[in-house]
Amino acid sequence: MHNQIRHSADVVKNGVYQLEVNEKQLESKENYELINSLLLMMNANYFLSNQHTVPGLDLKGIKGVLTKKDRLTDLMVFTPFMFGFKYIVSERFVECLREIKVSNEEYCLFPFEIKGAKINYYLMFVPIVPGTEIDFSNSLVYADKEKLYEQKTYFSLNSYEDYKRLYDTVKFKSFDKISLPKSYLTKDILDVQGAVSMFFSKRLINILEAKDISNLVVLKKGIELVFN
Asked: CA separation (Å) from 149 to 94, 144, 146, 172?
């Protein structure tokens, strides 16, 4: 069983981010052109085709500073947006991953320095499951205008191509249910294209909650994730 997770809106004072990454440091990297095209340029297709190269990127020495009203937490949201990187995480969070032996194939860590922090932090990369892996015939997609409806009208979709064609008439849409192949069932961390929030396994959520990992919110009414 998996649930979606997110950060707390009450913790993130401006509602968007707690940390600002030093972009000048990124721009000074010898591989900045690759970093920019892969992570920052908002080209989802290019990223998905090349995300396997992310662990090899030189992101050493990147630093960030807290916004004035925010505080350090175990999960931290940051700016600028980078494909595959939703959070900067603390050593306490990483210890939970190691304790239950989450596979290294599910995430990659890059040391990250935060001014004033007394423990280690990391940029956490999680590969994105592409939309082509979704079984749309067993998933539920609706127009965002119906988000608050008790009874939604779901689109009849049989493939990722059907889903993409929806953009011609319905640009804003969401999932109520996502169906993935059974090969993903044993994964503890899943970031699926088209789902804003990541999915964590129940066993991962249990240890994170037991260790009081801060700024973690488990969505009780998130997208249902099933495996076929």
From this structure: 39, 10, 5, 15
